[in-house]
Design a protein that fits this description.
- The complex is a heterodimer of chains A (about 375) and B (about 300).
- Chain A has about 375 residues and is an alpha+beta fold.
- In chain A, about 35% of the residues lie in helices and about 20% in strands.
- The N and C termini of chain A lie far apart (about 95 Å).
- Helices cover about 10% and strands about 55% of the residues of chain B.
- Classes of the chains: A alpha+beta (about 375), B mainly beta (about 300).
Chain lengths: ~375, ~300
């Protein structure tokens, strides 16, 4: 290899200077303009108020639906931080009042000493559920229990009763197979989700899909695409479809009644929405005749909570939760304020009767509905 | 059957064998470094707070000269993990990163004789490198304070074409024989990046397979990423007590800043880290080729 030393050295000298200049310029320009963003947030009482207000302003999804003037809320409370708000407890109280204006059970602020919340969605209504009554007189002590589901079959009318108190309890496919197999000869199924405050939406879908026979639209979900109050994505359809090779429940012959009260919230509300969408869909029987599913909602209106919640953290370390992704039913109607029971199945518990006669009026109404509508061949129940 | 395999092997690889016989081996430098230091992170998909803490990363680099010594292939792979707390120590966040880069860098240096690979006694102490690279970055952020929420973590995936460069100064005094100072930097310039939509949940993105607006063209307008490292390669043999060691120690510092602004989501990282590493230089030659060389070249960059 022949090298022209004089020429190569001149070229190399210029190239070195150019590359060094480029490298250093690039480093200094980029680093100087980027580090400015790595500043701490204002952790004063006012700073935390502003962070809370701004997080909701940019991410909360129900301003328009609830008709809340969020700028007005800011105008109302911001001046308090000029003189009267001096402690973190007063800050907490202000945030609590701001939450009340939004009337949303998904909004909370978790301080080390308390939780700012809006729970009027169930506290202002009849409870319609007595846990002691259910445990003592409807479940007893020999109920079966798996994946958060307590279940039993009543000997008197061969109706299956399944109590599922939280969608935080993970439901396995095999768990469901066993439960549905063990109660397969029941005349109908009561699914009691009263006081179920929600949990994982995936669990709600996993449970509901055992009652579907074909892919069924049950709603839509949207999300924020920008900071504006109405910056939403296009609605994304939500479907429930039956799993393959799994134990299913034939709701066309054996009615399903879901028991609800005002404390059914969030994922429980979504579950009711899915089941309502499945009600009336057709199922072919063994002769190919299409029969409508009988999936009914009995009890009180649900508590709502149709916004998928997100969480964030305030500068003082308090975490906060808020509705971020609104969901609607299959007709595009919001279920944020709850879902009504099926016609004719709005039932309130009589507390006196519950106490004196050990009778849960909502469960009894569901049993009556099942016995009046079941198409199952009458058989002796296998277990209780 | 054996004959068939031998024949096939010979037909396929004979040209490569013939080519290789005419070549001298080219120096390779492997650098294995541990980086430890302080960092800051912010991801507004999770929370607008800034988290400050410490991080550690393991980085491997490989520099291999091409046949005419004007080009060098450069590879970098690193895995990093960092933790941070908000300034009130009330919440904690974790971040992880996996990076790979492959680049072809133009080399400006006359330090090596291209025929013998000996260091020229009158050569310049400076070496310069500049060139493009292709890379992929994977990362995540996880906020423990909101771990049970629908947005506890976020992922980052980018594939990039970028620029990498380095300046190397080789000490020539006998007392510091073999010592080098190296300043190197690399930054992505354009590529593709994954980012969730502003308020979209991962439930919607993956469970419902809603993938609109999650892959974006990235360039300097929405992604700025710069990794700079200044290091001294320090042959242990120049210390009297370590005469018998032929290892090269790397000591230095690094500065990394990374930002991304996509879908109104702001992501920021920065770190200052101390670097300690081991530099291993070698010639990938056979014994027959070794006879062509008087000695191993020391300057393998």
């Amino acid at each position: 290899m022949h090298i022209d030393n004089s020429k190569s050295s001149r070229v190399a000298y210029g190239s070195r200077l150019a590359s060094l200049y480029c490298l250093l310029s690039f480093i200094f320009c980029l680093s100087s303009c980027l580090d400015d963003d790595l500043m701490e947030q204002d952790d004063s009482l006012r700073g935390n108020f502003e962070a809370f207000w701004q997080t909701l302003d940019q991410h909360y999804c129900f301003f328009d639906e609830k008709g809340v003037d969020w700028d007005g809320v800011h105008r109302k409370y911001a001046p308090l931080f000029d003189d009267s708000i001096k402690t973190q407890f007063e800050l907490f109280n202000v945030l609590d009042e701001m939450i009340d204006t939004l009337r949303d059970g998904h909004i909370d602020v978790y301080a080390p000493f308390n939780i700012a919340r809006y729970w009027s969605w169930y506290e202002d209504y009849p409870n319609n559920y007595d846990d002691n009554l259910v445990r003592e007189y409807y479940l007893g002590t020999n109920y079966w229990y798996t994946a958060g589901m307590q279940y039993v079959m009543y000997r008197r009318d061969s109706v299956a009763y399944v109590r599922y108190s939280s969608f935080n309890s993970a439901i396995g496919a095999t768990n469901l197979d066993y439960v549905l197999a063990l109660i397969r000869n029941a005349n109908g199924l009561i699914l009691d989700i009263r006081n179920n405050g929600g949990g994982s939406l995936a669990n709600a879908v996993t449970l509901a899909e055992r009652f579907a026979t074909e892919k069924t639209l049950y709603g839509y979900i949207r999300h924020k695409v920008g900071r504006g109050h109405d910056d939403f994505s296009k609605p994304e359809p939500l479907y429930v479809e039956p799993p393959t090779d799994r134990m299913m429940w034939n709701a066309s012959k054996r009615p399903v009644v879901i028991l609800t009260n005002r404390h059914c919230f969030s994922a429980a509300n979504n579950f009711v929405q899915i089941m309502r969408a499945l009600d009336g869909t057709m199922t072919p029987d063994s002769l190919g005749i299409l029969l409508p599913k009988m999936i009914k909602i009995c009890g009180d209106r649900t508590g709502g909570g149709s916004g998928l919640p997100f969480e964030s953290v305030l500068p003082n370390g308090w975490s906060m939760r808020f509705s971020a992704c609104p969901m609607t039913d299959e007709n595009g109607q919001s279920t944020e304020s709850g879902i009504d029971p099926s016609p004719g199945l709005k039932v309130d518990m009589d507390s006196l009767s519950a106490f004196q006669n050990h009778c849960d009026d909502i469960i009894e109404a569901a049993r009556q509905y099942i016995m009046e509508h079941t198409l199952a061949p009458r058989k002796e129940p296998e277990s209780e | 059957m054996k004959r068939f395999i031998y024949l096939t092997w010979t037909i396929l690889f004979l040209p490569l064998h013939l080519l290789a016989q005419d070549e001298l081996p080219r120096p390779v430098t492997n650098i294995l470094s541990l980086r430890m230091g302080q960092g800051k992170m912010r991801d507004t998909y999770l929370t607008p707070l800034l988290y400050t803490g410490s991080g550690i990363s393991l980085e491997g680099q490989r520099w291999r000269m091409h046949r005419n010594l004007d080009w060098t292939s450069w590879q970098l792979a690193d895995i990093a993990f960092s933790t941070g707390e908000d300034h009130g120590h009330d919440s904690e966040a974790w971040a992880g990163r996996l990076r790979y880069r492959y680049g072809i860098l133009r080399r400006w240096s006359d330090s090596l004789d291209p025929l013998t690979l000996d260091i020229r006694p009158e050569s310049s102490p400076w070496s310069f490198y500049l060139g493009p690279y292709a890379g992929i970055d994977l990362g995540f952020d996880y906020n423990l304070k909101i771990a049970s929420s629908n947005n506890p973590a976020t992922a980052r995936i980018t594939t990039n074409l970028g620029a990498a460069g380095a300046v190397c100064y080789r000490f020539q005094t006998p007392a510091a024989q073999g010592m080098r100072v190296m300043l190197q930097a690399h930054a992505p310039l354009l590529g593709m990046g994954f980012c969730p939509e502003y308020g979209a949940s991962y439930y919607e993105t993956f469970y419902l397979d809603s993938s609109d607006h999650i892959f974006h063209f990235t360039s300097l307008h929405n992604q700025q990423d710069l990794d700079v490292q200044l290091a001294v390669d320090f042959p242990l043999a120049i210390i009297p007590w370590f005469r018998s060691f032929d290892s090269v120690l790397r000591l230095g510092g690094s500065y990394h800043i990374e930002t991304m602004d996509i879908n109104d989501i702001t992501t920021r990282y920065s770190s200052f880290e101390f670097v300690i590493g081991w530099v291993y230089q070698y010639l990938p030659f056979s014994r027959r080729k070794a006879s062509l060389l008087k000695r191993s070249p020391y300057d393998a960059y």
